[in-house]
Amino acid sequence: MKHRTLKMTTLFAIALVLGFPNSYGESEISWMEGTVYDFGKIKEADGAATHRFVFRNTGGEPFVVLGAVGRCGCTTATYSEAEVAPGDTASVVVRFDPAKRSGAFKQRVTVLLSGPSGHNSLFVKGEVEAAKNDSKQYNDSK
What we know:
Blueprint: H1 2-18, E1 29-31, E2 36-43, E3 49-57, E4 65-70, E5 75-79, E6 89-96, E7 103-113, E8 119-129
Parallel strand pairs: 2-8
Antiparallel strand pairs: 1-3, 3-6, 4-7, 5-6, 7-8
């Protein structure tokens, strides 16, 4: 996991310095249900929550997703590395881990693309209900 994070950070840094690749010509992307997803209230005890953001290539040229990077370790993303032809759909799955993060949250995932738009931002938000402490915890002080 550390290797992939380092790889994505390096890719993002290179893209910022050199400019995003434009080898696939003109492309456009349309997010089918928007770029913000509200989980509402989630329980820390239930573990990670995920949402699949679906997009369509509405342009005339194919493109690829080069990467998807969360703002912090609590938010990660997976995606297909396959080329997305005009008219085709693909997705980015965003995973938010609520562990030790009680209260309201809004996290961004930056999606890097090979087309002229370069990148898009996705957001997940909601409110984490803290795990309740178990009053019947084991006491080793006897």
